[in-house]
Design brief:
This protein is α/β, with parallel strands linked by helices. The protein has helices at 11-21, 46-61, 95-106, 164-167, 169-175, 177-191, and strands at 2-6, 25-28, 65-74, 80-82, 113-124, 127-139, 155-157. The chain has six helices and seven strands; from the N terminus they run E-H-E-H-E-E-H-E-E-E-H-H-H. The structure holds inosinic acid. Residues 69-72, 85-86, 98, 116, 148-152, 164, 176 line the site of inosinic acid (IMP).
């Protein structure tokens, strides 16, 4: 089986990606290749961060690999928090504080439209390819639901009345930004002859 590194140690993401790609690819994590250090993510775009992580692995460990970066982009906030989504309310990466900050900033605004966007950077042989996945929706006024993570309790995807934290992971994982980006990655890998 062909081996490729997914530059993450997030078990939830690994499982999700293995479910989509696992039949034809051996997806290995950072832990599996002995990469224990913090990989720099200092770019100011999702594309920049995804490329930075993937290039780091290729340069330091020599493997073909892919890396992802995701942000919540809120129209009325000029697409903030965007690439700063994890640390929007500070270095502690506290989801509740992040949501509170978003809700405070949106107080009184009529436009509550937002989207999640995932970018995946693939480094395969000497090629660098970017894929993205977007889901549009709105930010509600107060959190609802208990599944998922991050901003899920305040995000209602377009066409649904429940938040991401209410609809359950099985539905979320088929319509989400990440699922859409991984699907594009899968199609590319399946169509590309890399032997
Ligand atoms: P990452 O690039 O996947 O680590 O995502 C960065 C940040 O975006 C996370 O820390 C969360 O705050 C937020 N985020 C990413 N994906 C999701 C999601 O599916 N639901 C809610 N928040 C998310």
């Amino acid at each position: 089986m062909k081996k490729i590194v997914f530059a993450t140690n997030n078990l939830h993401k690994l499982q999700e990606v293995r479910e989509i790609l696992g039949k034809s690819w051996d997806i290995v994590s950072l832990l599996d290749i002995g990469c224990l250090e913090d990989i720099p993510e200092t770019a100011n775009t999702l594309e920049g961060n995804a490329l930075m992580k993937a290039r780091y692995i290729k340069e330091h460990y020599g493997y073909d690999c892919f890396a992802d970066d995701t942000g919540l982009e809120i129209a009325a906030l000029d697409n903030a928090p965007g690439v700063y989504s994890a640390r929007y309310a500070g270095e502690s990466k506290d989801s509740k504080a992040n949501m509170r900050k978003v809700l405070n900033k949106l107080e009184g605004k009529l436009d509550r439209s937002a989207r999640f966007r995932t970018v995946i950077a693939l480094l395969l042989k000497n090629r660098e390819i970017l894929f993205d996945g977007i889901i549009n929706g709105t930010i509600i006024e107060s959190p609802r639901g208990s599944t998922g993570f991050g901003y899920d309790p305040v995000f209602v995807p377009k066409g649904y009345s429940e938040t991401f934290a209410e609809i359950g992971n099985s539905i979320k994982n088929t319509i989400s930004h990440r699922a859409l980006a991984v699907e594009k990655l899968k199609n590319y890998l399946n169509e590309t002859n890399i032997d």
